[in-house]
Design a protein that fits this description.
Number of strands: 5
Number of helices: 6
Shape: globular
Number of domains: 2
Structural class: alpha+beta
Largest sheet: 5 strands, mixed
Strand content: 15-25%
Strand order of the largest sheet: 2-1-5-3-4
Distance between the termini: 41 Å
Order of helices and strands: EEHEEHEHHHH
Bound molecules: FE2/S2 (inorganic) cluster
CATH class of the largest domain: Alpha Beta
Length: about 160
Amino acid sequence: MAEVKLTVNGKRVTRHVPDETLLVEFLREELRLTGTHVGCDTSQCGACTVHVDGMAVKSCTMLAASASGSEVTTIEGLANGGLHPMQKAFNDNHGLQCGFCTPGMIMTAVDMVRRYKASGERLDEEAIRHELEGNICRCTGYHNIVKSIQQAAGEM
Ligand code: FES
Ligand code: FES
């Protein structure tokens, strides 16, 4: 068993879990934060994306024990007294259909916008599409997802 101590969405948690417990399993099954989805379990779809110490990470690729000591933000922790600008932009632009990919898309998109703003690089449509290569959506055709990220990039 491994002792896992995390700060998740601003709250400290400690649990003892089997060594092989994935971070996504820890979030969904130990903490019941089921907004983080599992689409593939093989690091391809991005539905499980969360932030670990501020960086987007596919939580099916990381052991909970490896994340111990970190700050984790899930889709449940993104809103702060109202929708995050990225959540609002997905809503405004109809950037989702079934919504299964959406939590991961939004966590990836927030990290993307923050990184581009920090570096001063231009986040144009081509860059957004390139950055989204690790997040698969089976419904939308991506067009409205890209529009959503462009809107939020102007507001964040
Ligand atoms: S469930 Fe993690 S990338 Fe698909
Ligand atoms: S909205 Fe259905 S998978 Fe993306």
